[in-house]
Amino acid sequence: MRILTFSLFFASLALSIFSASTPKPKGEWNFVRNGTTGITASQAIVVSPTLILMFDRVLGDPLQIDGHQAWVELWNLETNTGSAVNAITDTFCASGSFLSNGTMVSVGGTAVEFPPNVTIAPDGDGRQGIRIFEPCADPTGRSCTLFEDPSTLHLAANRWYPSSLRIFDGSLMILGGTHVIVPFYNTDPENTFEFFPPKDNGQTRPSPFLEQSMPSNLFPRGFALPDGKVFVVANNVSMIYDVEAQTETMLPPLPNGVHVTNPKDGTATLLPLSPPEYIPEMLVCGGSNTSDSIQPLDLSSQNPASDQCTRMTLTPEGIEKGWIVEKMPVGRMMPEMILLPNGQVLIINGGKSGYAAYGAVADTNTTDGSNCDHPAFTPVLYTPDDALGSRFSSEGLPTTDIARLYHSGVTLTPSGNIFLAGSNPHGGVVTNGSEIFNTDFRVQFLNPPYMSVQRPTLKGIPEKVAFNDKVTFEIDIPKGLDTGDIKVALMDLGFSSHAFHSSSRLVFMEAELSKDEKSLTVTTPPNNRVYPPGPAFIFVTVDDVTSEGAAIMVGNGASPPVEDQGISLPA
Ligand SMILES: *[C@@H]1O[C@H](CO)[C@@H](O)[C@H](O)[C@H]1NC(C)=O
Ligand SMILES: *[C@@H]1O[C@H](CO)[C@@H](O)[C@H](O)[C@H]1NC(C)=O
Ligand SMILES: *[C@@H]1O[C@H](CO)[C@@H](O)[C@H](O)[C@H]1NC(C)=O
Ligand SMILES: *[C@@H]1O[C@H](CO)[C@@H](O)[C@H](O)[C@H]1NC(C)=O
Ligand SMILES: *[C@@H]1O[C@H](CO)[C@@H](O)[C@H](O)[C@H]1NC(C)=O
Ligand SMILES: *[C@@H]1O[C@H](CO)[C@@H](O)[C@H](O)[C@H]1NC(C)=O
Ligand SMILES: *[C@@H]1O[C@H](CO)[C@@H](O)[C@H](O)[C@H]1NC(C)=O
């Protein structure tokens, strides 16, 4: 994953002799508590360099707006305080992503909820919800609003627990879901795809694959591949969907009977893509190996979660080899995987036993409602390029005492640390301290070592870049860092919902440091299939010390669907 030119390589040899006398500053990983949300952050997305937009349900969260409960909140990363945002429909268990024009769209949700006191529930039916958050330039977010017009702007189908991703033409593909609130398995499925803006005259596309993935197939995990096709894993099966030809090609099923989507949430990520070939590799971790033929009342919060990760290279040879099995240090239900700018994957949150959702399994009452138990308090790093068998490590990683179970939100921030909030394995707000797993409003950050040392700084990043282009910007590299080891990551930080980060992506860019080491010239991704056009952050990591992320628009910034841009990859 080292991306350096030959000249850089020789420069680094010379420099490492010089820098031997100036040891690289060492930071440490640490958890820091800061601030309290007013809603449960069951969904979270970074919408600007300073703001995170969070969504929840309408069952008594304390944050108020217009004399009633708010269920959408903007978190200001500069002040670590939140402010309420008005929404019309119920966003409970929606999904979302950015479009190619920088607009964030939230899709799906739940029907009107009836808390004990109906006066706090002015929510509209959110199952066909489409909520538009236009690019927000105000660092405080005060002037930024969520736009909804349910009578004219809505999905084709009712979708609770759908997922979504931005595809090569900059639109959103929306996958699956269920029509009504189901307590555990998907028993009333919407096994189709649709798009926003709509394709097919607004008709849905039936998916035999989603049919086959019943009944643990909520929040299917979908990823845009560098050729424009879409990888989907749902329950224990996976496939590649060709959006243009409308074909589904089955891939090998997950080994050892492991299920990885809701209510048996594992998680999945597309590993970082690197030039020149951008070969896609999928990593799928956690979940449960208990059979779907077992009804929830015969399951227990104490059933061990799966410690299995499986990885597959999506080339004909890689698919032939199938899923390669690896083991995490501990099993995890509802793990989250965060791509880090240096190419490592952080695995965090979830519990070591049980299931997602609440109030469904036999002994849910001994855990005060949670179907999941034994929170996994120590994160793990996965290094994709290390040898099989030695990729996981918790060395140097801190342990927290805050359980992040069902309905947690977590994301990498533009500063480069990890925002953690939420957890609420209950049907309402429980904060009286008598419960094992309260509704959690405490915000926490996990700081990587680079947060506490002098970091490279970037200046003069353009607002917008084209595909297959060269861009030069200024960089200030602290003394003591090996300038022969530079990685430049173009990232979509993803939309966090239910142990999945929709559209999350890292594409490494070829980079060349100027002779005076004051500017960096990077080559943008070859085309809109390698990086679906839309907003991104650029992070530069020098000798494992990462800069803050700089916001950038990738592609022409037009509204979807956009034309193909850039050059094709060699076949
Ligand atoms: C919390 O965040 C605020 C705003 O960034 C900052 O001023 C304050 O020092 C932070 N507190 C802690 C304990 O880190
Ligand atoms: C219902 O909510 C209203 C407005 O918040 C409050 O004034 C009233 O006391 C509540 N009633 C009950 C029974 O909780
Ligand atoms: C996947 O799960 C389904 C539903 O429980 C089951 O019928 C099927 O046999 C499983 N398939 C594989 C390949 O494990
Ligand atoms: C199921 O997973 C648990 C936890 O990882 C493991 O102990 C058990 O051996 C697995 N069972 C089968 C049949 O693979
Ligand atoms: C949990 O306890 C509540 C209240 O006693 C009861 O209504 C519910 O059925 C119990 N749930 C399970 C899964 O046993
Ligand atoms: C805590 O809150 C729950 C849910 O509102 C309630 O059932 C329980 O009685 C409360 N316990 C105490 C000690 O107040
Ligand atoms: C982006 O495109 C969407 C879908 O057409 C539209 O609703 C939105 O207003 C557009 N935003 C901008 C900034 O043009």
TrEMBL record:
Quick check: keyword Signal in the entry?
yes
**InterPro entries recorded:** Gal_Oxase/kelch_b-propeller, Gal_Oxidase_central_sf, Glyoxal_oxidase_N, GO-like_E_set, Ig-like_fold, Ig_E-set
Q: Where is the signal peptide?
A: 1-19
Q: Any idea which UniProt keywords this protein has? A: Signal
Q: Which residue range or ranges hold the Glyoxal oxidase N-terminal domain? A: 74-450
Give all residue intervals belonging to the Galactose oxidase-like Early set domain.
455-554
Record-linked Pfam families: Glyoxal_oxid_N (PF07250), GO-like_E_set (PF09118)
Task: List the PANTHER family.
Answer: GLYOXAL OXIDASE (PTHR32208:SF96), SECRETED PROTEIN-RELATED (PTHR32208)
What is the recorded name of this protein? Glyoxal oxidase
Species whose genome carries this gene: Collybiopsis confluens
